[in-house]
Amino acid sequence: MKIYRSCTDSELINLIKGYDQAAYKELYQRYWYLLYKHARKMLHNEEEAKDVVQDVFTTLWSRVPAIEINTDVAGYLYAATRNKILNLFDRGRVQQVHLSTLPHPISAAESKTDYLLRERELAALIEQEIARLPQKMRCVFELSRKDNLSHKEIAAQLDISDKTVKKQIVKAIKVLRLRLGPLYHLFSFL
C-alpha cells in the first residue's frame, strides 16, 4: 500500500489521472479545509462555502481524463474555488451544477477565458463605483489604493490633515461596501 501523505501534489494528480481514489482522498483531505476557509471568508455563509468546495472537488474528479494543471495544484484549486464563487455572485444564489449531465466537459481554455472575462467585468464594475465617489474622496482613495501612498504622503500632496485622509478613506470604503454588496469582498483579490 502506498503512503499518499508523503506524495507531492503533482504526484497525487498523476495518480488521480489513473483514477486512484486513495490519491484523490488524500488531495481532498489536504485542501478541503483551506478551500472551505477561503470560500467562507468570501461568501460569509458556511453552507454555500461547503457546497462550493464540494463542487470544486466533484468537478476535479469528473474531469480526470482531460485534467491539465499548468500551475501548482494549490493555485489551480484556489482559482477553481474563486470561479465557482464568482458564478454564485453572478447568479445571485447557490446553483448546483452536475457536470455529468453536460454533453461535453468544459475545457481548461474555456474556463480560463471565462475567468478572465469575469475578472475584467468585476474590475470595471469596481472602477465604475470608485468613479462615482465624490471628487475629493475619490482622489484620496485612489492615491491610497492605486498609488500606494501613505496617509502622510497623501496629506502632504493634497495639503490636508492626516485625519482628513483617514476619514475620507474610511468613508470611501463604507460607500463602496454599501454599493458593491457581496462583490466588495472580491475587491481585495484584484
Automatic annotation (TrEMBL):
Pfam families in the record: Sigma70_r2, Sigma70_r4_2
Any GO molecular function: sigma factor activity
Record-linked InterPro entries: RNA_pol_sigma-70-like, RNA_pol_sigma-70_dom, RNA_pol_sigma70_bacteroid, RNA_pol_sigma70_r2, RNA_pol_sigma70_r4_t2, RNA_pol_sigma_r2, RNA_pol_sigma_r3/r4-like, WH-like_DNA-bd_sf
Gene3D superfamilies: 1.10.1740.10, Winged helix-like DNA-binding domain superfamily/Winged helix DNA-binding domain (1.10.10.10)
CDD domains reported for this sequence: Sigma70_r4 (cd06171)
Domain RNA polymerase sigma-70 region: from-to ranges: 27-91
Span of the signal peptide: none
Domain RNA polymerase sigma factor 70 region 4 type: 125-174
Similarity section: Belongs to the sigma-70 factor family. ECF subfamily.
Protein name per UniProt: RNA polymerase subunit sigma-70
Source organism: Pedobacter yulinensis
Organism phylogeny: Bacteria, Pseudomonadati, Bacteroidota, Sphingobacteriia, Sphingobacteriales
